[in-house]
Amino acid sequence: MNMMNKGENVNKASEFKKTFDKGDILIVDIDAYSPKKELIEPFCTKDHELVLGKNNFLQNFDNKFLHNEIEPSYKFQLKIPKNHPNEKYRNQKLFFEVTLKNYEELTKQKALDTSEGENKSQEEINDDPLAKAQERILSLFVENEKLIKQNELLKILLEKEKEGPKAVVIPNELKKEVEQYALQKFFEEFVNYYSLYKVTSLSSEMQAELLDDPKLKAFSKGYRMITWQFDEMFKKYNFVELKPIEGEIFDPKYQKVNEQVIDDEFPSNTIINVHSSAYKLHDRILHVALVDTSVRSDDPQAKVLIEKLGDNAYHKTPGRLHTLREKVAETIAKNNSK
């Protein structure tokens, strides 16, 4: 065989294929599972050499690869033969997961070796320096073919990886925001009930103080303890109460007007009565505060109030702020007068 013919044979042998053929050697990791997904160790092995067509692992096992496309891994079901040495698993259907680690085309290597052997006997090769050189060149071609196969396999594995799902990279700022507001929906619903509880507990505490009633004081003390526990827990999540103060100017960022009255004793938009506090989670307002505000008679809004409410548009106690203490005292006085 001349060098040109040898080169042509090697080129043919090195042409990359997409499927397995009989005689190919596969190096694989094999894991076997029961229908309940339990690992079956007797059929698990690492770096196992499969010579396709010999069925040296299990009967019909090689058929799962023959003439099939080369993939990084395979999953299939196979029935264990009824004459298998392991009696426990005879006739059972097991699930196999096979990871391809490497392979080579044994049949083509044999063809190259056979072709060379037909032209030169071993004795001739030993005696002929040119034959030795040709043998060495051919062996290098075979080694090169192995490297080409390994390289092509790596290319396939790389392409399969590219086809797989992409990892989602979340920016740190977005990740932080998601973590901060993960409980927002809960707090939005919770605060509606907690706000009412807070107003009731503060009113009870003020009533106990004004009446100097030991039983009410003990009762309000329990309220105060529960409220303190809530507030301590809220600190962990940066859930904050924003308390409007009577006499301060209305802030639309976290307050909502419940009622407006005309009162020239205060600047327009002065808070004269607080119904409830506002609550925020980090920087988000989840619950606005409810307040009553004043309007001066020379304010355009005063005309609107008079047209709508008449005499009821005016503050019944001009210059007076309706603090919690005052409101509780009025309630006590009304109850005593009955």
UniProtKB/TrEMBL annotation:
Tell me the Gene Ontology biological-process terms attached to this UniProt entry: protein folding
- Is Translocase one of the keywords? no
Query: Which UniProt keywords are listed?
Result: Chaperone, Stress response
List the molecular function annotations (GO) for this entry.
adenyl-nucleotide exchange factor activity; peptidyl-prolyl cis-trans isomerase activity; protein homodimerization activity; protein-folding chaperone binding; unfolded protein binding
**Gene3D superfamilies, per the entry:** 3.10.50.40, Head domain of nucleotide exchange factor GrpE
Q: Which domain of life is it from?
A: Bacteria
List, alphabetically, the Pfam families matched: GrpE
* Identification of the protein by name: Heat shock protein GrpE (Activation of DnaK)
Source organism per UniProt = Mycoplasmopsis agalactiae (strain NCTC 10123 / CIP 59.7 / PG2)
